[in-house]
Amino acid sequence: MDPRIAWFPPEQLGPAQILWTRIWESGIGVENMHLNNHTNPNLDKKAQEFIPLDFQNNFDKKQGPSNINRQNQNQNQKRKRDNRASTYGLNHSSAVHLLGENGGLTPWKPRDKTYHRGVIGLHEEIISFFKYMSPRPEEAHMRQDVVHRIRQVIQGLWPAAKVNIFGSFETGLYLPTSDIDLVVFGKWDKLPLRPLERELIKNKITDEDHIKVLDKASVPIVKLTDLKTDVKVDISFNMVNGVRSAKLIKEFMHEYPNLKFLVLVLKQFLLQRELNEVFTGGISSYSLILLTVSFLQLHPRIDAASPHANLGVLLIEFFELYGRNFNYFKTGIRIKDGGSYLSKDEMQKRMDNGYRPSLLCIEDPLQTGNDIGRSSYGAIHVKQAFEYAYLQLSHAAAPQNTHLQKGRDSLLGRIVRVTDEVVEYRKRVMENFPVKKEQEPPTVSLLSSKSSPQQRTYASVATATPSSNEESEGGTQT
């Protein structure tokens, strides 16, 4: 079982599982003892054959390959510690204490709350999850404070510069630990990444240990962590499409009322598995939202876009499509003009500079020929996680398996958890950034949450294999 993706479902927990987990951990411990023994001649030989992806940046003539490996392991561990939502290693026996404080890591489900069984109950639970995870006024107030202080620094440095918010904070589809995306518009001969870095440190927004300038990236940015709030911020320059994409997402949220429910669940699903960033082997939030939009655009049932559709069925079908049925090798996704699929050969003709369509090929709805997923080198891991989620939910929600949903057990909790660390972080935000009623900032509106689900079976949606005319518009319903 991949510790990054999966954990034991409730029906597998018990004395036997605990025993076998400890036996397995003991075996892993012995292996690690050998791996960490750098006097082992076999280890040195293997280490010399290993070249990390970022070896050009990490290699030092004074360091051996074994040291490079240890550095990479430490970086991976640090990234997991930085992610409060990470559920990595949840099956480990030392993680059992996590299951006590907030009802088994499902705080959206009150202890005395009982849902219907099957997909109707999953629908109800998704609504509960959305209400719980949606931004609170205090969280919005805290982020506005971060933006205000950074804007003051930037405009103090360049009075004519304009600072805009985009991304999840602008659309309202952000999680408690999500980053803030800012774009600075102005006129410079050379992007002033380093001057901005120095000014942010000088004004104590951040310090040298919590800021990084990515000047060699395809989109140069300044990444920082705000010292006052611990909120992460990405700052780019003159990126018009960032603002335009936020506007486009808002339009889709209006067109598809179910979009925000699905996206918030899916964002948490990827975040806790370290699959929410391109550079950690995942996909971007923008790619995820476009995948969800395409799913709703091309769904074979007309009522899939209705606010009364069953969210549980839609979530399972999403995982079925992108975890099992979608042809990643031959098919690209088009969002504009109502949505369609296109062959990668067709996409290739529209791309410039010799680029080839990526595994997860999504045509940019704002820039023809641009592949949104071209940097998502780890998209196959996302596909595997989606397949795992489909198997878990479709099995547990099937009519013949309603006995698996006992008492306090959460159906959604089979694939999504909220760690105690996130719960405590939200409590601190509530305490440190109180908001008076008349000052409450706008939050995402919750549209019809009382629905009468009409679909109680699973639909096999588009297999995404292009037809002879190189486009396909969906599959069949079963």
UniProtKB/TrEMBL annotation:
Enzyme Commission (EC) number: 2.7.7.19
PAP-associated domain segment(s): 310-370
Gene Ontology MF terms in the entry: metal ion binding; mRNA binding; poly(A) RNA polymerase activity
Known cofactor(s): Mn(2+)
Pfam families membership: MTPAP-like_central, PAP_assoc
CDD domains for this protein: NT_PAP_TUTase
Alphabetized UniProt keyword annotations: Magnesium, Metal-binding, Transferase
Feature: compositional bias, Polar residues: 445-478
Bias-annotated ranges (Low complexity): 67-76
GO BP: polyadenylation-dependent ncRNA catabolic process; RNA 3'-end processing
GO (cellular component) term, any one: TRAMP complex
Domain of life: Eukaryota
Poly(A) RNA polymerase mitochondrial-like central palm domain segment(s): 122-252
Gene3D superfamilies: 1.10.1410.10, Beta Polymerase, domain 2
Keyword RNA-binding: no
Residue segments, region Disordered: 58-84, 436-478
Family classification: Belongs to the DNA polymerase type-B-like family.
PANTHER family: INACTIVE NON-CANONICAL POLY(A) RNA POLYMERASE PROTEIN TRF4-2-RELATED, POLY(A) RNA POLYMERASE
Protein name stated in the entry: polynucleotide adenylyltransferase
Organism the protein comes from: Owenia fusiformis
Taxonomic lineage from the root: Eukaryota, Metazoa, Spiralia, Lophotrochozoa, Annelida
